[in-house]
Every structure is written in C-alpha cells, then in structure tokens.
Amino acid sequence: MQSFYQLSKQIYDMENPREVRRAIIFCVRAWLHRGKLQELDAFFRKDTMLSKLADIYPFVYEQPTRAFFYNKSTFDERVRIVEKHMQFLRGKLREDVLLPLYQRESLPLWTGPECMGVELTAALFFDYGQRKEGLMSVILRLGEASLYQIIFWIAPAVDGTPAMWIGAMQGPNMEDARDVVKQATKACHSYRTKNLVLYIAQAVARSLGLGRIYAVTNEGYYANNHVRVDRKLKTDFSEFWREAGGTDTEDRRFMELPLIEKRKTMEEVPTRKRAVYRRRFAMLDDIDREVMERIGEILQ
Hints:
The protein contains eleven helices and eight strands. The chain has helices spanning 4-11, 17-32, 34-45, 48-56, 59-62, 75-92, 95-101, 177-187, 193-207, 237-243, 274-298; strands at residues 107-115, 118-125, 136-142, 145-156, 162-170, 212-216, 247-248, 254-257. A hairpin with a 5-residue loop joins strand 7 (247-248) and strand 8 (254-257). It starts with a helix and ends with a helix. 34% of the residues are buried. Mean pLDDT is 94; it is low at 227-231. It holds the Pfam family DUF535. This is DUF535 domain-containing protein. InterPro entries: DUF535.
C-alpha cells in the first residue's frame, strides 16, 4: 500500500491551502485507522479489476475517513459500503464500462423529448464532488446542464438482499432554474422532473437485479454530521420520498421506496387529463425498456 501522504497527494489539490488542511486531516485519520485501511487495500489488491479501480479512483481510501454517506455513519460502516458497492459492480459490469464510470464518463440510459431546443437525457455518472453522498449517480440532463441527480451506493439490506441506498437527490443549480424545471415538466407530459429522475433510478435498480431501495430521510442526510440540516437541504427528502410511496423503517435515517412506481388507472384520472396521462405512461414505458436495454448491454 502507498503511504498515506502519497495517497493524499492523489486525492487533494496540494496547491490549495484548504485542500492541504484536508490532506493533513486525512493522513492523521488514516494512521489512526491504518489497520482497517490496510485491510481495505488488500480487498482491492486481491483482484486485478478492483486494483485498477482503486488506482483511478483513490477516493475509496478517503471516503471511510470522513463523515460521509449518512448521518452518524461509522468508519466500519463506510468501509463496508465501499467494499460492497465495488464488489457488486465488479461482479455485474464489464471492465470497459466500470473503469470509465470512475473517470467521469457517462453511460447513457435514456434519450427523452426535446425541451428548450435541446434533448432531455439520463445517464449513469459519477463525479468526485458527489462522493459525500454516494458512489454512483443517475443524472438527468437538459443538454449539457444537470437538472436532477440521484446519488446512491449499492449494499445489502438487513436481510441480505442487494439494495440501492440513496444518499441524496440534488436539483438544478442554474439561472432561471424554476422556469427550466417548469418547461421540462411540460415536455414530459406534466411529470415532475424530480419524479422522473427517481423513476429512472428505480428502473436502474430493477435492471441491476436489486431487490430493495432505501433513501436517506432529512434525519439521515450526511450533512447532519456537521451543521443544521435546514441550512443544507433545499429539498425535503422525507416528504418527497413519502409522496413517492416511501415507508418508514426501523432506522429513522432511512425510508424504503418501492421498486416500481404505482400508477393511477385511467378510471382514476379525470377525463380531461387522460390524453396527457396516456402520453406520460407511454414515455415511462419507453424509459423502462430503454434502461433495461442499456443496462443489459453492459452486464458481464
């Protein structure tokens, strides 16, 4: 294993004083937990593909040392998350797909309608800035701009079932965001964009063979480790998950979400809205089919 100092130089910008401070803290924490990090390194080095992954994404050593993923997560839990997530993807995805995903390359999942002169698209994607909340994301884009992201990791549920764990949902960070979301919603037959990105994430979970989906509540959001949550959260996670069919779990930090969104029957839809709902449901059916095809193409 490399020295913690050498690792810190790969992880942090040593020209930035703030990053230098983080590098020092990383080295101290890593030394205090050196035995567990050496075991984590052994996990990656036992397999050629995992070893390559650790080389291109050295943050696997940093994430356990910081208060990431969810509120009051422990060092051991974070190590387990990193191992289980990477182990699952190692067993599922082709090497020529998995490694580029951790080099900021997008994997297209869906091409949607045109909105404001550009296409709505969805992809699997991971940016290093997302590592506080997870290890992968489903991103909904309008052209090149990010609209919504579901950031998650994959690890077993309490009963051992492989599960998607959502660490955050991030909305648009752009000028006129409200108007852009309004236009995108209209293009998607009055289907809200945050519901759309969750729908796509559910399709990804099913296509990967995951049996459950959990999502952090307001109480479970990782930033609760640091400051008041109302200064961090732009979205009320708990309320949105509940609207999406989420149910409480024994751990108040997480809710369980359905793998499949429940749809209204046409009898439940007012007559004047049925044409819009038919177009919406057709779009959602296309998403299910396209995501299944795209994921199927990248499986081993």
